Amino acid sequence: MHVVSVQDFAEWRAKARPLLAGDVPPAQVVWNASDGQSGLFDDTPPPAGVRVVSINKDFLPLAENVALHRDGGKWALLYHAAYRLSHGEPHLLKLATDPLVHALAMMEKAVKRDAHKAKAFIRFRSIGDDTFVAWHEPDHLVLRKIGPFFARRFSDMNWSVFTPDESMHWDGETLSFGAGGDKNLVPQDDAQEALWKEYYRATFNPARIKIKMMKSEMPVRYWKNLPEAEIIADMLDEAPERVQAMLRYSQEIPDSAEPFVPESRCLEDLRHAAAGCEGCPLYKPATQTVFGEGAPDARLMVVGEQPGDEEDKQGHAFVGPAGQVLDAALKEVGLERRKLYITNAVKHFKFLRNQAGMRLHRTPTQKDINACLPWLDAEIEALKPTIILGLGVTAGKALFGPSFTLHGQGGRWHPKGEAQGRVTWHPSAVLRAPDAAEKEAIYREIVENLRIAASAAKKDGE
Asked: Considering the domain 264-461 in this protein, what is its CATH number?
């Protein structure tokens, strides 16, 4: 029996290597956890003389996130997964129903959600001399995960964030970490707090208030550290009167997702915010927002029209019949979907029901496109693609303006910010074509434009 003490992910990684190389099964290893945070993301080489064990590349980012979970049993679970991956089950992580994979996925999800909450609910207070401090009580050990985000966002000020487990500090140049602290290190009031409360009151939308959802997005346990929580009760009392005032002016305000788009240009933050978008009426009958998906560093971005019936049900872009056509074209060109970023110009399914109750696709209007455009613009800013391929005229209008026509401007390059874009047929056009010859002709145009876009993206990256 091997008894192994582990402080952090780097140490677990170093100690797991020789055990895996020695074919030590999980049942013969007892992991003692004494979590710290130093060196969590160090990419240390294996010790001299230790056989290198090959493990699926998707395991490392999963393991790095799971390592931040507070449950001390994580080390044993990670070793069990690493052992199986390196001993005959290289595709283990694709088995979502496997109990071990499911457990790790739930731990990773909890850590990511906790990191997102930390970004949303950490509140700085001034202690003078342009220095700010904050107190936060995360569920998991997420400071090192969110540290670079705060260093970028608040790069021009000196600050510290204290938690019961650890602290992080920024001096304008260097991000460092230290021991945990207690709430007394952070003042409970400062001159900025009144301004923050006024800002929160001004941005509070009484028409959207849903108490259950609010408590889900802003759990009550965080309220004690949030200055705005002190005024929530008053704002709820004022809500009916404010809603009536908003209704009086609603006809003058065009539909737009803009109020729902966060400042962050992190795709994960955008996706989370888009789930609650009510910027136009399309959200009401739709099942859910269908946001873009794919590699966050993809050089090629593919933009479709809107979700269809299957996409609306599943919450993923291009998973219905048109998606099957797109997958076939991607395969023919040699493109892997996971290496692209695929999204739609409009994020909610626009449809009408026939007498049988079936949901029938309706083409988005220019008003629908304009309302949803802030999401597409934010995705482009976040991804910074070099090549954008639009599928269909709706995508063309979203990318290049309402006067765009597929027959007049399709299949040609057009500038889109710092990227170059072109537009081809939407894959659904293949399905709607009246005969086999036209189906083949449209499909061939899609394949050719995918090939041109892929080649241009590859050249730009070389």
From this structure: 3.40.470.10
